[in-house]
Amino acid sequence: MIKISPSILSADFARLADEIRLIEDFADYVHVDVMDGHFVPNITIGPPVVEAVRRVTRLPLDVHLMIEEPERFVESFARAGSDIITVHAEATRHLNRVVESIKELGRKAGVSINPATPVNVLEDIMGDVDFILIMSVNPGWGGQSFIPGSLKKISAVRRMIEESGRPVELEVDGGIKVNNIKEPFDAGAGVFVSGSGVFGTKDYGATIIEMKNRCLPDREPR
Ligand code: DX5
Ligand code: ZN
Questions:
Q1: What is the value of pTM for the model shown?
Q2: Around 110, how many Cα atoms within 13 Å sit in the side-chain half-sphere?
Q3: What DSSP assignment string belongs to 19-73?
Q4: How many C-beta atoms surround the C-beta of residue 22 within 10 A?
Q5: Is residue 182 classed as helix, strand or coil in its secondary structure?
Q6: Which residues, 6+ apart, have CB-to-CB distance to 117 below 8 Å?
Q7: Parallel, antiparallel, or unpaired for β 3-6 and 191-194?
């Protein structure tokens, strides 16, 4: 199943409820990018915004924490209404502990890796996670270009997931648009984050439908 998780980082924050209403019937998750100005050189939003978004959508909230020592904040983000909380392997000394605490809070736990982080850091956490998020840009901003080297990482992680026999969702984040979604899909990703690729288009719903269509096997590339 192909799932689309539009990133509200590229939405109009002054009209967030209206923007989310436009994806409500088409998207599978709402992706929320949390940046702290330390782990990444940019600052975005925190738990109060997650709480506000929670009130205007029935879609699961896919909260991507690009913050140092995420263990300090997972409880706040869980209380704010996150359904999936993803932390970066590079951001914590105790990855297993933070993943376990997310699950104890009753939320799905994800682990993400940056473009230069090798996939083998995921081996010993695979048995504990619900999501793996492969960054296909260096985190920090929306609107960057997809890094082609991410494709071989997606294939390698897909193999690791198959070997684990666990129902881990494989998500890819950064530079995904209608015209390039098929490549990470063919490499084995199942959940696609897209910020500017959705919110930078005229008709968000039509874009999400087209993204899913582009992954269908019988579809001729345009
Ligand atoms: C990057 C964020 C992404 C970003 C994606 O730091 O984690 O989720 O919003 O934006 P696009 O799809 O525009 O690359
Ligand atoms: Zn993200």
A1: 0.97
A2: 25
A3: HHHHHTTT-S-EEEEEEBSSSSS-B---HHHHHHHHTT--SPEEEEEE-SSGGGT
A4: 18
A5: helix
A6: 89, 90
A7: parallel
The closest-lying atom of ligand 1 relative to the alpha carbon of residue 146 is 14
Residues 18-38: tens digit of each pLDDT: 999 999 999 999 999 999 999
Are the CB atoms for 33 and 199 separated by under 8 Å? no
Which residues line ligand 1 at a C-beta cut-off of 6 Å?
7, 9-10, 31, 33, 64, 137, 139-144, 173-176, 193-197
Question: Which residue in the block uniquely carries the two structure tokens 């690791």?
Answer: 160
Lookup: tokens for 129: 């996670």
Judge whether 33 counts as a catalytic residue: yes
Structure token digits, residue 203: 């008709």
Q: Is the dihedral of CA 127, 131, 134, 139 positive or negative?
A: negative
Burial 30-58 (b: 16+ CB within 10 A, else e): bbbbbbbeebbeeebbbbebbbebbeebe
pLDDT digits (tens, 9 = 90+) for 48-86: 999 999 999 999 999 999 999 999 999 999 999 999 999
Task: State both tokens at 184.
Answer: 């990470």
End-to-end CA distance of the chain: 22
| Helices and strands (H, E) in the chain, number of each type | 8, 8
Cα of 216 from ligand 2 centre, angstroms: 24
